[in-house]
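ESCALATION

Customer reports they have been waiting on this structure for their group meeting. Please prioritize. Original submission:
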Amino acid sequence: MKTMSLSTVINPAILILAALIAAVTFLALRGNNLPLLANPKVSVAIVLVLGFAMCAQGGLGYVGAAGQWTHPLAIVGYILGAAILVVAGAAFFGFKLPLIAGPSQALIAMVALIGAKVVNSLAHYLVAR
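Update from on-call: job pushed to the front of the queue and completed.
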């Protein structure tokens, strides 16, 4: 039987995506007038797409390959992912969330949640080995 190989959670693709998220966040919060980052909602969308890509590379991809869908740290990852989607939805549709007044604060909250999700994925990888 052919088995799937489990890649590490921190790999070059994830590091590149994390660097892109950091760059988009820095440029968006600095207030540069770059054509693509002129609107804070666009920055939220870009960070959301990059976060999806990170999750597919090292988070959910690892959980699926390992078959650990009900592991407690996988469930924490699902909750963090749902929180990221709620914050992004609030930024897109203008919902008010506690401590998040606008798209710029939503961007900061999303980046913090993505960081927590990366740490959770790394912990899951190290515990489940």
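Sent to customer with the following note: The chain has one domain: 12-128.
Escalation resolved.
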